Amino acid sequence: MVPLAVALAFLPLLLTLLLRCRHYLLLLLRAVLLPWLRDRLGGASREQRAFRYLLAHAVPGDPRHILSTFDQWSYRREHLSCVGPDKGKLVERLLRERAPRAVLELGTYCGYGAVLMAAALPPGARLYTVEPDPRHAAVAEKVIRLAGFDEQKVELIVGPSAEVIPRLRERHGLPKADFVFMDHGKRCYLRDLQLLEEHGLLAEGATVLADNVVFPGAPRFLRYAKSCGRYRCRVHRASLEYCRAIPDGVAELCYTGAR
């Protein structure tokens, strides 16, 4: 009777925790557990399944339709860790305001962000996008070309960002980036920002956007950006892509130059 009484005493607390965490539990189910099971049962990855859906439903050469088809997949089928339509509007707005000539994306994933940014760039501008996972890069390459962007507009570079960044100037012809979008491993944000500084790859006044700085979070990156004296920093509050109930944010940094 005593264990039962103890269990009943903790039941309201357990229910309260489950209620508060339900959105995170749902995300775990949609973003991790179900895709893992489908990967094992079907023999194709979630990203490959999304691309097949894209081929069946999207209009080739129409970036807007390709993005909206991705959104349909992520809302209705399986969660994809793309920037998504809501935070994507911020990225597009800043690109159109700043009109950068050279843009660097760290974390291509399926190509969603690359398509979104390439569509917002002014004529003659170029996007360099870096993806460490060759399997994701293979999907992204198809998505970017399906959207109608050739290698002169979007160059996809496959490799770990820590290895790619030091050779961006010599091997890929990127003198300085006017705009950087970070959407790769959150633990890599600070290291890669410092690599960009070290190799002189940030133009004065460059914009650096970093996604998911609230969830899953990049606290060391934010502390550095706010305290090092090289940036003006603000965080745009938002929600996690395709999960409006989970708070998130995008950090916007303006590079003021080396101290």
The major beta sheet can be summarized as: 7 strands, mixed
Beta percentage is: 15-25%
Radius of gyration: 20 Å
Kindly state the mean pLDDT as a whole number?
Answer: 91
Number of strands: 7
Looking across the biggest beta sheet, what order are the strands in? 3-2-1-4-5-7-6
Order of helices and strands: HHHHHEHEHEHHEHEHHEE
Helical coverage, percent range: 40-55%
Morphology call: globular
**DSSP helical segment count:** 12
Note poorly predicted spans. none
- Roughly how many Å apart are the termini? 68 Å
Secondary-structure class: alpha/beta
Can you describe this structure?
The structure is a single chain. Helix 3 (46-57) crosses helix 4, helix 3 packs parallel to helix 7 (134-146) and helix 4 (63-76) packs antiparallel against helix 6. The chain has helices spanning 2-20, 22-42, 46-57, 63-76, 84-98, 112-120, 134-146, 161-164, 168-172, 189-198, 213-217, 219-227, and strands at 102-106, 126-131, 154-158, 177-182, 202-210, 231-240, 243-255. The protein is globular. The chain is built from twelve helices and seven strands. Strand 6 and strand 7 (243-255) form a beta hairpin. It has 259 residues and is of the alpha/beta class.
